[in-house]
Protein: Small ribosomal subunit protein bS21
Organism: Rhizobium chutanense
Amino acid sequence: MQVLVRDNNVDQALRVLKKKMQREGLFREMKARSAFEKPSEKRAREKAEAIRRQRKLARKKLQREGLLPAPKKVLRAR
């Protein structure tokens, strides 16, 4: 993973790096690898993730078909 530092602005580069790592799921993976996870906990976690994925896909499908309203966009002041 690579992040460019512009105008010696290391703070901004760190923010960009953290955001990229978050998107890739590195923080979640590091936390999972830091301690042993019992097989029963792993099954429960994977099942919950699968259910979450399916619900998200179904929600997006209904939004595309117009049966559910699209989420409202949040305006952020910069």
Notes: The CA atoms of residues 45 and 56 lie 16 Å apart. Helices lie at 10-24, 26-34, 39-65.
